[in-house]
Amino acid sequence: MYRITVIPGDGIGGEVMDAALTVLDAVDLEFEFTLAEAGDGCFRRCGETIPDETIRLVRKADATLFGAVTTVPGQKSAIITLRRELDLFANLRPVRSLPGVPCLYPDLDFVIVRENTEDLYVGDEEYTSDGAVARRVITRAASERIVRFAFDYAVGDGRGGVTAVHKANVLKKTDGIFREVFYEVASSYPQVEANDYYVDATAMYLITQPHEFDVIVTTNMFGDILSDEAAALVGGLGVAPSANIGKKNAIFEPVHGSAPQIAGKNIANPTAMILSTALMLKHLKKPQEAQKIQEALERVLKKGVMTPDLGGTATTSGMADAVRKEVLEL
Amino acid sequence: MYRITVIPGDGIGGEVMDAALTVLDAVDLEFEFTLAEAGDGCFRRCGETIPDETIRLVRKADATLFGAVTTVPGQKSAIITLRRELDLFANLRPVRSLPGVPCLYPDLDFVIVRENTEDLYVGDEEYTSDGAVARRVITRAASERIVRFAFDYAVGDGRGGVTAVHKANVLKKTDGIFREVFYEVASSYPQVEANDYYVDATAMYLITQPHEFDVIVTTNMFGDILSDEAAALVGGLGVAPSANIGKKNAIFEPVHGSAPQIAGKNIANPTAMILSTALMLKHLKKPQEAQKIQEALERVLKKGVMTPDLGGTATTSGMADAVRKEVLEL
Ligand SMILES: CC(C)[C@H](C(=O)O)[C@@H](O)C(=O)O
Ligand SMILES: CC(C)[C@H](C(=O)O)[C@@H](O)C(=O)O
Questions:
Q1: Which residue range(s) make up the domain with B157?
Q2: Lower CB count within 10 Å: N or C terminus of chain A?
Q3: Which residues form the Isopropylmalate dehydrogenase-like domain (chains A, B) (predicted)?
C-alpha cells in the first residue's frame, strides 16, 4: 500500500489531478490518498501558500502528486519551498516524443537532470544603492550529489552518456567546480560516456542536434531554461512531466502552470500530469505499472484522442477515461 | 572616411575577416583599416590575450570588426574585456532567416538586445569553504540604458513591440528591478507595444511561437543563452552576426567561435562575418550600403553558393568573391 499525498492546487490543477487519479485508479496497486493544500486559493483561505501541514503530509507520504499553483507576485512560492524544505535535490525532466502529438522531432528520448536546491534559487538577494545583487551558490556537495544521481540514472535506465552543461568560461569558479566534480564522478562510471558543453551552445544543439543527447545534467537555472526549451521540441508544456526527488521524499508534477484562463472548462491537457504519475510509479519501483500508463496514454494519443491545445476535441475527463480504459485492457 | 580597427583573431577568424573585407571593399565608401591583435595567438606572441594597444585602437576607431578568438581556459577573455573596458553595453543579435539556408523557420525577423556589461558577467566570484559564490549584479542605470536602447531601436527600425525577458518570480529583487525599469521606460514609448515573459517560457516560445517576437530585451546571461537558441532557428552560428554597441565605440562580430578544427581549409562560412559588416554600416548611418551587402549575400545564398556547413560546396573566398560581385552590380 502506497501513501500518496495529493496537492491539486489552483486553476487547472484540480482537473488534471482528477484525470491522473482516474488513470491511476485503474492500475492494480493499492493507494491511500491524502489531500493537501497549496497555492493562491490556499492563501486566500488560510493566509499561507504552503502551510506546515502540507509540508508534513508530503514528508510522511511515499510520494506526492502536485497539480499546479498560481503564485501571485510577492507570495512565497509553494513548489520552491517544498523543493528546499524537503531537500528534493534532483529535478528530473524526461524529454520524449509522443505519437500523434504535433512536435518538431517525432523520435526524441532523453532526460534532463536539473540540480534543484541551489544556484540563483537560494533566494539570497539584496538591494544595493544602485540596484540589487543575487548570489549564485554552487557547492561541491550538491554538485556531486546531482552528478552522481545523473550517472546512476543513466546506468539504471540503460543510457550510454551523460553531458554536463555549464558556463565555466564565464563562471570560472562556480561552474568550474561543477565541471570538475562532474569529471571526478564520471571517472567512477567508465561504462558511461561523459562530455560537457557550454549552456549557450547547448541551447543551440537542442535544436540542431537533439538526438545526440542521452542524459543532461546541469545547474538549477540553466536546467530551468533548457528543460522548457527541450519540452518545446516534443510538443510543449502540456505534455511535459517532471519529478522532484530527494533522499526521503519525492514530488511529481507537470511542468505547466495553473493556466487560470482555461480553468473549469474541462479542456486542460492532462497528459503531463498522467505522465507524472507514471514517473511516480517508476520511482516507487513499479516499472511495469508505470509502463502500462505510458503505453495506454500513447495508444490514446495515437488514436487522436487529445485536448484542443494539441489540435484534438477531447475533454480533460474524456481523455482520462480513454486512458483508463486502455490501462484496464493492458 | 571611416577608421575601422580590424581584429582577425585566431582559427577561422582571419579567413572570415578576409572574406568580409573583400565584400566591404566593393562598397562605395572610404575606409582606413588598422590591424590589431587579440586572442590565444596574440598571447603566445606577446603574453596577453588583449593588449592595451588593441584596446586603444578600438577606442579611437569609428568601428571595429572582430573575427573570432580562441580562449584557453585560465586566459582572460578578449571579447569580455573589450565589452567591459569600452562599456559596450548593448549586444544586438538580429535573428533573420536567409534564403536557401536550411533552417526551422524560413520567415523569421526579430532582434535580441542583450545587456552586455553586468549580471553574472561582472566576474565577481569567490571560493567558499564548501564551493563558490558568484554575484549577479543588476543596476537600475544599466537596466534603463539597455531598455531605452531597445525601444529606440524598435522605433528606428519600425518595429511594433518590445518584450522584456527575466526571471522575476525567482530573482525578485534583481529581475524585479529589471522588469520595473522596463515598464517605466515603456511608458514613454506609447507607440510601441510592451510585454514581458519569464526566461523559461521564452525558451519555449522561441520554438513554438517565434513569429510573435519583434524586439526582445534581456539581461546578459539570459541573452547569451536565448540568442544562441534563436540563432539555431534560422540556420545556426554560421549565419549569426552581432554588434556590441556603446556610447562611443562599437564592435561587430560573428556569434561563432574560432573553430580551430576547420581553420586554414578555406571552408569556414563567412556569412556571419559579412552580415556583421552590414550591421556596422547600418551603425555608421549608411543603411543603403548595409542593405546592399545584405541583398548581395541573399542573392548568392539563393543561388546555392554556400559553404559545406550549409550543404554547399563553395569555399570561404569563393563565397566572398560571389558576394562582392553582386555588390558591385547592385
Ligand atoms: C514556477 C517557477 C518558480 C519554477 C522554477 O523556476 O523552478 C518553474 O519554472 C519550474 O521549472 O518548475
Ligand atoms: C565567449 C563567451 C564568453 C561569450 C559570452 O558568453 O558572452 C559568447 O558566448 C558570446 O555570446 O559572445
A1: 109-233
A2: N
A3: 3-323
C-beta of residue B279 within 8 angstroms of C-beta of residue B252: yes
For the whole model, what pTM was predicted? 0.96
Segment (H or E) for B195: strand B193-198
- Quick one: A229 and A242 in the same domain? no
Comparing CA positions, the residue from A128, A131, A123, A119 lying closest to residue B117 is A131
Verify whether residue A175 is a known catalytic residue.
no
Q: What is the pLDDT of residues B287-329, one digit of tens each?
A: 999 999 999 999 999 999 999 999 999 999 999 999 999 999 9
How near does any CA of chain A get to the CA of B30, in Å? Answer: 37
The verdict on residue A100 lying in a domain is no
Please indicate whether residue A52 is annotated as part of the active site: no
Q: How many domains does chain A have?
A: 2
Give the Cα separation of A287 and A293 in Å (integer). 10
Query: Which chain B residues are Cβ-neighbours of A121 within 8 angstroms?
Result: 170
Q: Same structural domain for residues B163 and B116?
A: yes
Query: What is the helix (H) or strand (E) element at residue A45, kind and residue range?
Result: helix A40-46
User: Within a domain: residue A104?
Assistant: no
My answer on whether A193 and A250 are in the same domain is: no
Clarify whether B121 is annotated catalytic: yes
Please check whether residue A99 lies inside any domain of the structure.
Answer: no
Single residue among A185, A211, A233 that ends a domain in this structure: A233
Chain B residues near residue A131 by CB distance under 8 angstroms: 137-143, 174, 177
> Could you tell me if B140 and B289 lie in one domain?
no
Chain A residues close to B231, C-beta within 8 Å:
204
Asked whether residue B20 falls in the same domain as residue B63, the answer is: yes
Q: Find the ligand nearest to A202 CA.
A: 2
Do A78 and A154 lie in a common domain? no
Q: How many CB atoms lie within 10 A of CB A321?
A: 18
Domain end: B179, B202, B233, which one?
A: B233
Nearest neighbour of B225 by CB, restricted to A121, A205, A225: A225
From the candidates B28, B107, B157, B200, give the one annotated as an active-site residue.
B200
Tell me the pLDDT tens digit for each residue of A48-90.
999 999 999 999 999 999 999 998 888 899 999 999 999 999 9
Q: Is residue A103 a part of any domain in this protein?
A: no
Contact (CB<8Å) A132/B233: no
CA of B326 to the centre of ligand 2 (A): 32
Instruction: Give catalytic status of residue B105 as yes or no.
Output: no
Which sign does the torsion angle of CA B231, B234, B239, B243 carry?
negative
